[in-house]
Structure formats: C-alpha cells, structure tokens
Amino acid sequence: MTVHDEPAVRADQLKEDLVADLMEFIKIRSVYDEKNLKPVQDAANWCQKKLTEAGVKPDHVEQKCIGDPDKNAPLVYATCASDDAAADAPTALLYAHYDVVADGGWQEAWNPRYIDNRTRVQGRGAADDKSGVMMHLGALRAFGGRPPVPLKIVLEGEEESGDTLEGYVRKNKDLFKADVIVVADTGNYKLGEPTLTTSLRGVVAVDITVSTLKAPVHSGVYGGPPPDAFMALVRILAALLDDPGDVAIPDLVREHWNGKEPGEAAFRTEAGVLPDVNLIGSDTLGSRLYGRPSVNVVGLSGPPPYSAPVNQLTATASARVSLRIAPQEKPEDALAELERFVKRPELNPWNAVVEVKKADSGAGFRADTSRPGYAMAKKAMEQAYPGKQVVFTGDGGAIPLVTALQQINPKATVLLIGCEEPLCRIHSSPESVNVGELTAMTDAECHLLRLLNEDRG
Question: Any idea where the Peptidase M20 dimerisation domain is (predicted)?
C-alpha cells in the first residue's frame, strides 16, 4: 500500500497528530491588528514550520509581504510537487487563513480542550479557520509530502479584518494561477453531511454620519427645537427596512435560491432566535439567506454610553451600515443605490447634515457547477462520507478573494469546502470543531487530489 493509493487511511492514522497540532495552533492568539503584528507573525512562522515538516522543501515556502511590512500580516506561500507527477497534471491551489476573530471576552478562547467526549476541540479559531489550515496540512502529510498533482498553498493572515490580499492577487496573477482552487473557509450545512458551497453574497459597507449642532448642549436648557443628531440618524436607519423586513432600497438585485433549502426550525435554533420573535423578509428562507440583500448596523457612535448617561443633545452621530448583496450584484452599483437612498429628502425632514463614506466592499460569487472539477469534488467527498450524497448550498457571508481568484483563473474550478458546520459557533463562543469532520474533510481533499491526477485526460 502506498500513500497515493490510500490517502484516507493515512489521514485517519494522522488524526491524533492533527488534533494535537490544532490545539497548539489555537494557543497562538492570531488576531490581526496592524498596530501589533506579533500574534499573526507567530502564526505565520508556525505555518511555515509545519509545511516544511510536512514535506515542502524549505526553499519552496516563504512569507510574502502583501503591502506594508509594518502593517500587513505576512502571506505564507508554498509550492509542492512530487518528482514523479505527470507533466500535464493540473495544479491545485489550496487556500485557508490563519487569523481569527477576537475572543470577545471569552476567557477560555486560547485554552484549547476536548469537549463532548473528545469528539470536538474547543477554542477560538478551532473551526474558522485553523481547521482549514490543518485540513491542507493533513492532506500534505497523508501523501508523505509527495502530492499527486502540483500544489500552491496560500495561507492568509488578514481575512477577518483586512482586504489587502485581494489587491495583491490581482497584481501578482502568476502566483495564483491554478486549474482547481480549494478555498477551505466554509463547511457542511449539517454535521456529517458533505456540502459544496456554490454561492456567496457580496457586501458593501458605509459610514453614515449625521450632524445637527456644533457641539453637544444641555437637553434641559435647549431640548425641543434643535434636532438631536442621533434621533435624526435613527430615522434614516429605520427606513432601510420596510415593515415586512425586506431591504427598502428599491433597485438592488434580488435572486431566488434553488439549491438546498435550510429548515426553519433548525435555523431558528442555530441562530438563537427568541421563541416569539418572527423571522423577517420575503421569499424562501434560502433566498433570504443566499440571494436577497440584507442590512444591519455593525458599529455605532454618538450619544454617551448607557453606562455613563449625560443629559445632552447629541451633535454628531455615526453608524457603520453593512449591506449584504446578491451574488451577482455589482458592489459599486449597490454602493451607489445605498448612498442615493440614505440621502433621500423624505428621510431627513429636519435638514440635518448627512454624509456617507464608503468603508468596505466585496463582490459575491456564483459557481459554475457544470465544470469537471465539481464532479470530481462530489465523488471525492462521497468517498470520504460513505453512504452520504453531496448537497449544494449557499452562504450569506462574503469572501471577496474568491471572486478575484475566479477572475484571474476563468477556466478554473473554484471549490468552497471546509470543516465548519452549525455546531461550530464560529465568530461566537464557545467555538469548536468536530474531530470527525476534520478527518473526513482531510480525507475528501486527499481523494480530490488523487482524482485530479487520475482523471486529467
């Protein structure tokens, strides 16, 4: 038996080492902060070390500066190929990110541990996305550092809070040329159910600032005639949704979802919706999650905090508004529509000064599932999950890098997979990953790489 013949067997044998390394990896507090790069630098060093230990030649793995070395996290970039790989073998690009979101006050975030009878590993980043890094490392180890097709391994350090890599990719296209691209930053719609994510919403974000006074004034002495800036801002924010809860901006793209439809009861439980609270919006639940716009406020400033109230009128108030857009909506079009809507005179009858500034934007993604790589991926995942059938689903989140990779590789198959599933509680606490899912997805990637070599004709 060779590692090329039975990669899944090897992946299962390596499970304990994968879990041990994942726990070690979680201890690195790799939250990206341009003012303190040490945590992400430590994580990048760890990734580079593990790649070489897995068989990548030391001179074939490096840390690339994607912008300002004093502000940007390094990109860990590696290439690897077996000496006996066929000359016409397709190239696979394997992507994941090593940065994580902040602990949010979770005291045990950086203290990894087994939970649920050792079936899950708990800790910040256990699922999103250090499990994706481990999935790629596990596949490399399963092949003994000699993968059947050439690999490009790309591990990012700014996915959660930066956007520099997308521009770097567009300026350095040759580094990211590939025939099949595996983005390990999504997961299965349900634990143990193999899933390919084929749709991502895009996103635009703006800062809306409303001003009514030169400075805050006493609410008893002056309250009444002068408008409070925060109250004026609230009127604008409330208008973004109509009574049924649909985004009220009229000319945005709205798509109907035809793939795997999530169940409402399970969704309510996973999202933590309170028992008597209604879900909002029109069309199917899948359409509302994957194909239609949604809007919410993700940051707010203006009046004094609740913990330290002051009797005064607010002079200036600001809100960061995040608008999720349909997969095929152009971000620049959505941004223009959002700004036009916010500045409608009927939303500002008090004639407050309203400013709108772009904060972020990213395109959505819609996969072409007719490409041969999808058939191979489906077969690979069903081999890793015996007796299960692969389903296609969407994701309401945005990964703008995916669109950039597809645009510079127009004929490539882009696959969105990973070890996440609803019980992981990503971006929340307590975050965890299922050990069986990590092993199975590592198996699936092994099978995919083997199939890419076997079916290249």
Answer: 199-344
Question: Which residues in 143-175 are b (16+ Cβ under 10 Å) and which e?
Answer: bebbbbbbbbbbbbbbbbebebbbebbeeeeeb
pLDDT at residue 10, rounded to an integer: 60
Q: How far apart are CA 253 and CA 450, in angstroms?
A: 40
Q: Under CATH, domain 7-200+364-454 is a member of which superfamily?
A: Zn peptidases (3.40.630.10)
The strand pairing partners of 324, in sequence order, are: 203, 294
Region(s) of the chain under CATH 3.30.70.360: 202-255+291-362
| Distance in angstroms (rounded) separating the CA atoms of residues 165 and 94 | 15
- pTM of the prediction? 0.89
Query: What is the torsional sign of CA 433, 376, 397, 244?
Result: negative
Half-sphere exposure (Cβ direction) of 215: Cα atoms closer than 13 Å = 1
For the chain, what's the residue count? 457
Pairing of strands 180-184, 92-97: parallel
Give catalytic residues, as residue numbers.
Answer: 99, 159
**Type of residue found at 33:** D
Distance separating alpha carbons of residues 41 and 177, to the nearest angstrom: 26
Under 8 Å between Cβ of 204 and 197: no
pLDDT surpasses 90 at 82: no
Residue 456: predicted pLDDT:
59
Cis? peptide before 129, omega within 30° of 0 = yes
More confident residue, 9 or 409: 409
Q: CA triplet 60, 62, 64: central angle to 5 degrees? A: 135
Fold held by 202-255+291-362: Alpha-Beta Plaits (3.30.70)
